[in-house]
Write a structure and sequence with these properties.
Elements (H helix, E strand, L loop, with lengths): L6 E6 L2 H12 L3 E6 L4 E3 L4 E3 L2 H8 L4 E2 L7 H9 L4 E5 L6 H4 L6 E5 L11 H7 L4 E8 L9 E8 L6 H24 L37 H10 L6 E5 L8 E13 L9 E3 L5 E5 L2 E10 L5 E2 H7 L10
Parallel strand pairs: 1-2, 1-6, 2-5, 6-7
Antiparallel strand pairs: 3-4, 7-8, 8-9, 10-11, 11-14, 12-13, 13-14, 14-15
Helix pairs in contact: 1-2, 1-6, 5-7
Length: 325
């Protein structure tokens, strides 16, 4: 089929999805509709804010659908009227079968991992937290169980030692947009040979999950090794952010600190109690882990601005014998 002939419905919400939608539009594909989340109140004034995908779609004059419920009769009717040949999902929500089974050429999803590894909502974060050296993006056809459908294509990329969730997100966003184009090209040319995910699993390989991250997930465990703590911090930076606390006094609430970046400065056997803070109160902030120290380089006290550590220490003095917990 020619690019203009294949009718595509695109489903997505955040900035990660915009890059793929933009690639389709700029490469001449016929996007007949865009489905995204309803506008939500945000900011101090709780004004309704459109998703990044909606904002881009409206700039391009694309038809936008924002259903509250994906099984709503009115939405399903409108979706059918668009007569799509193919649906593409990038960072959206779980679709009911009545939606993903609708187009004759199916519905495929772009996932930010090398499936079948890291199925779930936060594959970028967990790949970093677990210290992986490689990740990638995958396109696969939707099926009944989430992230388990037959794989169309995968693209790999190394994870660098200085990557965090933001840098890896941006690299996978660009890589994923190209993979979406490759996938649509192959589907339109009828050259794909989807592979069951179990066929890509070597024997005795443990599947690692990527569950949704909640605020409590970000609590740093200083009893871990320096490498594990370093990976944990960068895996959650800049959002939702790793955090730790100190108890400044018996009758006061703990003070919470967000940790955006750090570096391993000492590795080996350590007799220092994990969480112990070492600082000159001017230039450095070191925290003991299981086998050494992590130097915190980017920090934020709850309710204050994010700062480089040297700037932070000019305005804040840690209590004597303070220890993170």
């Amino acid at each position: 089929m020619e690019k203009k002939a294949i009718r595509i419905i695109f489903m997505g919400t955040p900035q990660f999805a915009v890059e793929s939608l933009k690639a389709l539009v700029e490469n001449g594909y016929n996007v007949v509709g865009v489905v995204t989340m309803p506008d939500k109140p945000a900011g101090r004034g709780y004004k309704l804010q459109s998703s990044a995908v909606k904002q881009y779609a409206q700039q391009q004059g694309l038809k936008v659908l924002q259903p509250e419920k994906l099984k709503d009769d009115a939405f399903l009717f409108e979706l059918k009227q668009l007569k799509a040949d193919l649906q593409i999902v990038v960072a959206f929500r779980m679709l009911p079968e009545v939606v993903w089974a609708m187009p004759p050429k199916g519905t495929f999803n772009l996932h930010a991992s090398l499936l079948p590894q890291y199925r779930g909502a936060a594959p970028i974060n967990w790949a970093l937290i677990n210290g992986e050296k490689e990740t990638g993006v995958t396109t696969f056809f939707l099926s009944h169980e989430i992230d388990t459908g037959k794989i169309i294509f995968r693209k790999r990329t190394p994870i660098h030692d200085d990557d965090n969730a933001e840098t890896l997100h941006d690299r996978l966003m660009t890589l994923g947009a190209q993979l979406v184009l490759d996938t649509v090209d192959a589907i339109s040319e009828d050259t794909i040979q989807p592979i069951p995910q179990q066929d890509l699993l070597a024997k005795d390989i443990e599947l690692k999950a990527a569950p949704k991250i909640f605020r409590e997930t970000g609590h740093v465990d200083w009893n871990r090794t320096t490498g594990e703590v370093y990976n944990f911090i960068r895996g959650l930076s800049p959002s939702p952010t790793a955090w730790t606390e100190i108890q400044p006094g018996d009758e006061t609430e703990p003070l919470r600190f967000k940790l955006y970046a750090g570096e391993v400065i000492k590795i080996g056997e350590s007799s220092t109690v994990p969480g112990t803070i070492l600082t000159d109160h001017k230039t450095f902030l070191d925290v003991a882990a299981k086998d050494g120290f992590i130097r915190i380089t980017d920090i934020q006290l709850s309710g204050k601005k994010r700062m480089q550590t040297a700037d932070f220490l000019r305005g804040y003095v840690f209590p004597k014998n303070a220890r993170f917990s």
